Amino acid sequence: xxxxxxxxxxxxxxxxxxxxxxxxxxxxxxxxxxxxxxxxxxxxxxxxxxxxxxxxxxxxxxxxxxxxxxxxxxxxxxxxxxxxxxxxxxxxxxxxxxxxxxxxxxxxxxxxxxxxxxxxxxxxxxxxxxxxxxxxxxxxxxxxxxxxxxxxxxxxxxxxxxxxxxxxxxxxxxxxxxxxxxxxxxxxxxxxxxxxxxx
Length: 199
Known about the structure:
The chain is α+β, with helices and mostly antiparallel strands. It has 8 helices and 6 strands. It has one domain (about 5-185).
């Protein structure tokens, strides 16, 4: 297998870390945790930790491109580079009103622990903070948290509606020491690096 771009290594190891650390490692929970990781990192540095971009879907922030990559019909199929590290289980559940739903659980493969060396010390600190926030929470609670006032999701929905790209420059709060122009420049540089070099 060819060498993975850095942003894909970060994504993979974040998913391994999250799925091995929370009580309810569902697909929705993974999306919420990835979004929180990126948003908190953006607030401190002016740059999201991964190259994922999120959209304001009905149930919260969704990394839309990654979602489309792993969703095949009514199933989740992980890309080849993730299959040695993670598995996905499909579970049917019944809601109180009698309707049935499907949930996908993310699970690290036996003996697989996250490689934290791919993260900076700041990223490791933020990852731990995100895990502490969601460790015991069910996915519905994580979804509701993204709908709180002043989150990037709720600001996007209020200004632009649902199913729109969440623009961190417009809808996330930067630390006072980060200049907005510098944040814009960093994001454009990151997009160019990913587009041109897969980094």
